[in-house]
């Protein structure tokens, strides 16, 4: 087994890991890790030269030349190893990546329906550490989903591209000794002893190598992969709730609505793209409408669009059911009849909304896909119908915009965006495995919501006012503040797609906290204040 070192980690610091793997496999194993210039495998040709040198040294020590070879790597060494194997070691038996993973460029295949598939020419085992502060567990969860769960044949993929995780293990525990400065800055305090962590890594590695060589069956690998998948399922579920772009890209459809225009059309989900955001559909619009208290049913369809888009259409939220395309049902100022005579169990409103998940780590910010930065959307830019609009469409009389949609600081009855964001925090915490919840409760910087912030009554003001996160390290809290913008439920002037002027009426726009961001915070970033090596 030839192994690539992490940045600024001396190869001697992998001696214990190498011996643990040798002890775990049921066959003789040579283990070598070339010392690269400046302790890094990232300098061009350095890894290639190092591998040639270490193989020559091992041959001189008596290693047979017809030996079957596995390749592995930790951290930066693991990040560089796939390119080396793909370009220089096409006869490799397999590869083991530790605290590293196959980057997104390996999503080079597709199913017949166009669903993206991860491909690599040799079997690859990915091993993640739960408390890895540099190769975060959420990025390992992405690897699990894209390599195995989302594969056309998961039963085959769990053997060719399995993913396992080690509970309580940190990034540095793949090695021993003093961590380099970057690891000190970013890694977490582990919850298991290094010997135990490395024994678990060695066990997974041995099971994989043995199965690949045919000296054991795949049961051990499949069992560990299944257990690891269960531990990461809350992360995967939360990313699905935001329509995570690296699971499937947005469809960005242009679908005509029932009026023959594009502004209220609905995007459907397809095998190769996501039509809308489930969180908006299942929670944001429901909370905004206050449907449970009204006793009505909201059927919401969300579509992903760029909120800055104006051509071919400015996509807007809408309550359907009136034959006039830009009418606001129930608006007394317009004299438009409501959809329902009164709010009751028989009242069903069909509403479309618009969401744009915004990513800091979208492939432009983190070009190398290192796994260090957060992967979840930093905000969900969400266009919802206002509570006033819903109430009036449901047949409620004399609805006060101030009461329903004005922020509390200006005399309203509540901050609607904050209510949705609190629901995201609550949903995220409820989804956590008990040990993760206990860790976050004890050490985590607690997410909380602040009062909604208003802005000027123009789209660019809302668009450019980001969801704000303010940390207080002394109080161990992180406060989330949304910018909102809402308008009363009537058209003050002729408008519509046919008039090239959007109808900016009856909406309530929010910067929403993604439940995936909240989950990722509880697994990773919220622990940095009290659990990092540097804290």
Primary descriptors:
535 residues, alpha/beta, 6-stranded mixed sheet, 16% strand, elongated
Blueprint of the fold:
Layout: E1 2-4, H1 15-24, H2 46-60, E2 70-74, H3 76-88, E3 94-98, E4 109-110, E5 116-117, E6 124-131, H4 137-149, H5 154-160, E7 163-170, H6 181-186, H7 194-213, H8 219-241, H9 278-289, H10 291-294, E8 297-304, E9 318-319, E10 348-358, E11 379-385, H11 387-393, H12 401-405, H13 416-431, H14 434-443, E12 446-449, H15 459-463, E13 468-472, E14 477-481, E15 484-486, E16 507-512, H16 515-523, H17 528-531
Helix pairs in contact: 1-7, 4-8, 8-16, 9-13, 13-16
What does this 3D model show about the protein?
- This protein has 535 residues and is α/β, with parallel strands linked by helices.
- Helices cover 33% and strands 16% of the residues.
- The protein has 17 helices and 16 strands.
- The strands form four sheets. Strands 8, 9, 10, 11, 15 and 16 form a six-stranded mixed beta sheet that branches.
- Helix 1 (15-24) packs across helix 7, helix 8 (219-241) crosses helix 16 and helix 13 (416-431) packs across helix 16.
- The protein is elongated and about 90 Å long.
- The mean pLDDT is 95.
Structure summarized in a few sentences:
The chain is α/β, with parallel strands linked by helices.
Tally of extended strands?
16
Uncertain residue ranges: none
β-strand percent reads 15-25%
- Rounded mean pLDDT is 95
Radius of gyration: 27 Å
Structural class: alpha/beta
**Alpha-carbon distance between the two ends:** 36 Å
Report the helical percentage.
Answer: 25-40%
Query: Total helix count?
Result: 17
- Identify the overall geometry: elongated
